[in-house]
Structure formats: structure tokens, C-alpha cells
Amino acid sequence: MSDFDYSFGERALEGRVVLVAGGTGGLGSAAVALLARDGARVVCGYRSDRQRAEALREAVKARCGADIQLVEGDISQADVRRRYVDAAEALGEGLYAMVCCTGDPGRVKFDQASQEDLHQSMRANYYGPVLLAREAAARMQSRGVSGAIVLFSTMQSVAVFESSINYAGPKTALQQAARILAKQWGGPQGIRVNVIAPGVNRAGMALKSIQSGKYDFFVEQGVIPRFGRPEDTARVVRLLLEPDNYITGQVIAVDGGLTLRRDRG
């Protein structure tokens, strides 16, 4: 463009309805706050901690004047998935995008894991998210909406970490499913599907490990410049949800380069 007249939209998500499952967790709450600040109408799903959910709603209201809607329940259950999507469909012009931040770290060591431990990890880390994506996509497709879905995986699905099979196995399956769905649901008026694979963040599942010093080595040896922050993944969520976004079928590791450089420590 010789005249340098580029189009960079402002508040591109204003008025659009976004469902964030796991929206009160360490990473999910940052995404909720950023999307609400940018004018999206956010439905925030959470599993059971009503007090935490109300605290997030009050904080978002106080800081950016936006009101988020709360929906309770475990997305491993079909009726809960429907309830999440129904709540989003009832707002404005209906569901535009879905973000699923839910998961369970599956900390039982593989050599000690029972069959039920493995089933539970699959329910939390694969079945629930992928079936919620299907439910959300069906509603968007029924209205001809060209929307977006973002699923959360883990750096353990990008690189091989010992003792991670209970968690990394289902999350790796989720990544492949997302690629298939991006192809299946894509096209000119289709739905974009992408995955965020967070690294070591000062929030959510990794926080206790950071506090124990488990990951200090990576910073001390210069593998990563710092530990991740919830804002790091929230900004990527916003990018992937923007209506004119040009990315689909991708896994984006938001890990400071840990999965690329960890062998240098």
C-alpha cells in the first residue's frame, strides 16, 4: 500500500458475546478482564467457587464498568455445556466466540495412576473442552456466524517433559482435535479454531510449582527471561478472537521460549 493507509481496528470485540469457560481461574480471569475492558459481553463459566466468581465480577465492574454474567458447573457434564452456551446465546446477537481455559493437572505419577485417574484426566482435559467447542460451534453455525474458538493446552504438549503423561496426553489430543476442527469448520464464513499452550505462569496450575522453586532453574540459567504472567495469554486470546483475524488451526506457545531453549540450561 503506497499510501500507508492501514486499517488497525480499535475495540474490535465491542458488543460481541464471548463465552469463557474456566474464566475465574488464574489465566481465564485475565482473559475475562481484558475482553470486558475492550467492550465484549462476557459470559464467565466456572466450576464451583461462587465466591471467587463474584469477586471477579465485582473487580471487573469496578475497574472497567463492565458487567460479566456468571454460569456455574463442570463442563464434563452435557447439561452444563448446554447451559453455558444457552447463557451466551441469550445475550445481544448471540454467541460469537468461545474460550476454554479449563483443565486438571493430573498430578498422579503415571506409574501410580489408576485407570480411573487416566479417565478423569481425559474428561477434564479433552472430553469437556472438545465437546463444549462442538456445542458452541453448532450454535454459531446455525446462525451463520463467522466466529472463533480458542482452547487452552500446555507447554507439556509442545515439548516432552518427563512424568507429564497424565496431563500432556489429553492436552496433546486436544491440540490435534483443534487442527481437525479448524479444517472441518473453516472456510469463508467458517469458524477459526486455535490453541494456546501456556508455559510457566505465575497463575493457575503452575503457581504452586513456581512457589516451590521447581522452575527457578530456567530463569537462573537464562532459558527464559522471566516467568509468565496471566496478561501474556490474555493478549493472545484477544488477538485470536478479533473478527478479522487471519490465524486458524495453530498452536501458539506462550512460554517465553522455554520449549525451544530448555535444553540449553
What does this structure look like?
With 265 residues, the chain is α/β, with parallel strands linked by helices. The chain has helices at residues 28-37, 50-64, 78-89, 115-142, 165-185, 207-211, 216-220, 230-241, 258-261; strands at 17-21, 41-46, 69-72, 95-100, 148-152, 192-198, 251-254. The longest helix is centred in the middle third of the chain and has 28 residues, at 115-142. It has a single domain (17-264), classed as NAD(P)-binding Rossmann-like Domain (Rossmann fold), CATH 3.40.50.720. 42% of the residues lie in helices and 14% in strands. The protein has a seven-stranded parallel beta sheet, with helices on both faces. Helix 3 runs parallel beside helix 4 (115-142) and helix 4 (115-142) runs parallel beside helix 5.
Classified by CATH, the class is: Alpha Beta
Distance between the termini: 44 Å
| Class of secondary structure makeup | alpha/beta
At the third CATH level, what is the topology name?
Answer: Rossmann fold
Descriptive labels:
265 residues; alpha/beta; Rossmann fold; seven-stranded parallel beta sheet; 9 helices; globular
Describe, in short, the structure shown:
Helix content is 42%, strand content 14%. By secondary structure, it is α/β, with parallel strands linked by helices. β1 (17-21), α1 and β2 form a beta-alpha-beta unit.
